[in-house]
Each structure stands twice: as C-alpha cells, then as structure tokens.
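idk why but the lab printer keeps eating my pages so im just putting this in chat instead. protein + adenosine monophosphate:
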Amino acid sequence: MANDKSRAVYGIDLGTTYSCISQVDKYDQAVVLRNFEGDATTPSVVYFESESNMIVGKEAKNMLPVEPEKTVSFIKRQIGNDEAFDKSKNTTPYHCDPVEISALILKKLVQDANDLGDNPEPIKDVVITCPAYFGNKERLQTKQAGISAGLNVLGIINEPTAAAISYGMKIDERRTILVYDLGGGTFDVTIIVVNGGAIKVVATGGDHHLGGVDWDTELAKYVLNTFNTQNGTAYEYDSLSANARYDLLLSAENWKKNLSARQTAKVNFSYEGKSVNFDLPRETFNAITEDRLNETIDATRKIIDIAKDKGYNTIDEIILVGGSSRMPQIKDRVEAEFGLPTRLNDPDECVAKGAAIYAMNEAYAQAVKDWEEGTIDEAPAPLTDGQKRTRIVNVTSKTYGLGLDKDMVGNLIFANSSLPVSRTRSFETVQDGQTGVLLPIYESDFTDEEKDQTVEDRFCNLATEDISVLKITGNHPKGTEIKVTFSIDNEGILSVNATRESDVIDFKLKIAGVKDEEELKKSQDFIANATV
Ligand code: AMP
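predcted complex ->
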C-alpha cells in the first residue's frame, strides 16, 4: 500500500462554546470523530475537580450551575488578554492560563478520538482553526495550546477559510463569498474570493462578544419577567445567584434549540418554590432577540462596505456557519436583507472538516516532497478529485508598526495585505556610539493605510519594553542607519529582524503573553499529568 501517513492528520475547531475534531477517512470523506459521550461536538467547558483532575465537555457544562466558581467557559475570549495570563491575577481555578485551559479541551478531544477511533497511531499532527480576526499573539497562543496538549501543530488556519474548504469551494470560476459565522460566543463575517482552488480572504470583522449565548440571555430574561408577572415577584436577572442564573441560561439554550425545530417551545422554570409554565411561540423569541440579529446585520454591512472599498463590489453567495445559524430567523433575515442565496450545511462541523481537508493537503504536499527528495521510500497515495489541492491566500487581519518615539507609530504592514509579506523601514541612531534602540512593536486594527499615527488605545504593544531592545555592537556615529524588517508568514505570524549595513543585529521578538520554551515545557508537563 502506498504511504498513507498524509492521512494521519486531523483538523480541530477550537471553538468558544463547542470544539470538534475531524479527519479525512479512507473513502476521502471528512468525518467528525465523536467524543466519549457520543456527540460530534464537545462543549469548551472545563470543570476543575482538583489541581490535576478536570472534566471537559458536557458534564463540565452541567456543573456550571452547580459549582460556577470551579468551572471555566468561554476561555477563547481570554486568548490574547494579558490579564488572564497573569497567574497572580487570574481567577481561574488553580490559576491555569487560557492556553492551558484550551490545551485541556484539546486533550479531551484527542483522547476520546484516540480511544474510540481505529487509527493505528495516536493523534499527533493537527491543524487548528482560529477566527480570521485573531492577531499575532492570539495565533501564537492558539498554537501553544496545541503544543501544550502534546500535539504537533502543522498550521493555524482561519475558520471561514476552513468552512469554505469544507463546502467544496474549489470551483473553477471565480466567486465572492460572504461567510456569516454566528457561533456560541462570537460573530464573524468574512468575505473571501474563491478562484480555481485559491481561497483569499478579502475582509474580515464582526463582534467578538456576540453569539448564541446572547440569544439565550435575552430569552432567560424574558422568562424571568414572565415568572415575575405571574408570581408577583421582582427578581432581576443580574441579581440571581450564579447557580440560578446558569440554570436558567442552560434551560434557555434548550428552549432556543427547540424553537429552531418547532414553532413553539414548552417553557417551565421554578425558583424558590414558585414556578412558571407556558408555551413560547417562535415569533415571540424572534421579537425579543431582534436587536441581537440587527447587530449581526449591521456588522455584515460594514464588512461588505470594506470589501467594496477594495473593489469587491459583488457578493455571489452567503454561507451560514456556526451553531447559531440554525435559528430560522438567521436564514430568513440574511436572505431578505441581502437578496442573496444562503447555504446552511453542517454548521457545527464544517470548520473542523475543512481543517482536516487542509491538513491532509498540507501533509500530502510534504509527503510528495519527501518522496521526491528520497527521504521516504513509498509514494503517498494520490488525493482524489474531491480533495484536490487547495491553495490559501491569506491576509493579515491587523496592521503592524514600530514605535518611533513616545507616541508615534510608524506602520510597516497594513491590515488585509496578502501573506506572506515583508517590509523594511530605516531609522537612524540619534547619538554617537549608541548601543541600543528601543523597539516597541505595535499591532492595531486600523484598515486605513496611514504610515505614521499617534498611539491610541486601539494599539496593542506586542513587545514589552525590557525585551524589545536592539543591541548595537561597535562604535557607530550618530545617524547610523538601522533597517528593521517585519515579516508575516502564511499563518499570520510576525517575525522581526534588523540590520546595520550588512550586519544582522541580534534580536528575538518576545511577545508578552507568549510562552518561552521553559514555560511551554511546564504547561506541557501540567497537561500531560492532568486527567480530563
Ligand atoms: P458553535 O460555537 O459554532 O459550536 O455554536 C454553538 C452555538 O450554537 C451555541 O450557542 C448553541 O446554543 C447554538 N446552537 C446549536 N444548535 C442550535 C440550534 N439547533 N438552534 C439554535 N442554536 C443552536
């Protein structure tokens, strides 16, 4: 049999509310590997029984109303948040940081797939997806979550790109597609162009604190109001105990899901000896959540406008992704609003499946190379037509620049530049014999190509002051030219280097919140010893 190593690769959708792992099977179909509970997706929730015993998934989610202080959900929202990484400040049980908690979720997915699947080797090589808007730090941290879980991360790809791959977007003619992705905790809109196997992200954005849980909250509040009216009470949602609130919220999620399949849902809720019981029509649910829906439509319009500014005037179709896209109100409204056909197909699994197809493509390309170079002695099994090579043209979702003086930033690379990209800018030393240059590196989401800008709150200083000093050796006069080059690879990850004439100046970018080797090893050991 031909070398089939290229098939032992997996795609993982590490989601805000649910996660999922997929593989391309021997029939060349991307399939989801179910978890121990028999489900295709696993809630991204971790319950801490002790420092090294955790429960991940459905059972952990059920613990939210019981022991909320020991249960962590929505951890993806904390990726990139420096405070959440500060172990002295973070409030997660046992001060686990967001990378470690994400790694625990990955460990559960992989462990179940290993135990239940029929793969001869334990899962190792994976592609993990992330939102298109993730910046450098978030991408590195996502990668480190995989490494902490003992995995070999072949790549990080954008969720909408993975969805497009899974939807078989390898059509020969050029099409512009809008991916409307409403998950559990985030809303992303991305416009991509598919052209004969190449997938290019044109514009991306959304609201990273808007998702299915906001629909659940609106519904929970409505039910509590009805409860108050019927029982003559005056409970406020925000002042309910954490346990009662989670309880109501989990019930609301179930009523919401029922309303996706039926016109009415049977609602019943009890609290402190009183209860409420009624049939909730879908129209009422739609009315109480209309503002949230409007927010997604406004965000979608914004991205359409950005794409138009870049010369992409026509959208050919809309694909609906994310579990919350199952709500009938989404399809109805999006079609009515934009007058375009929508596709809703496999919204919870398509991202993981697309990542698996991409992973297989990457591994296959590598195997072909290895075979041609003689490092393996069997040719890889050829890909079938359905899995033909997909080329991804990514863009950076952020703008990157250098701190010039106290409050100016000199931008080198602008958001939406095609990747890989590399830009150089020159600076001059200001003193004779200067031995160093402070090099603050800024990331921002400015889309306007303004070269120099004053620093604003929207800028994130990636490299902390004590670690971003270029050391210049030798005695050079004032005005010596230093060239600084920013490079961003296909995965959207930044590297920085500098030269003085032909000398490369030793500089290693250390990004705050991204683990060094020693820290990473510690996390790996912690995850390896944890039971999930
Ligand atoms: P994702 O992050 O893409 O896995 O989406 C998870 C979100 O989808 C959660 O808020 C779920 O409550 C929601 N969801 C899943 N199934 C349904 C359904 N049938 N109807 C409405 N929302 C759903």
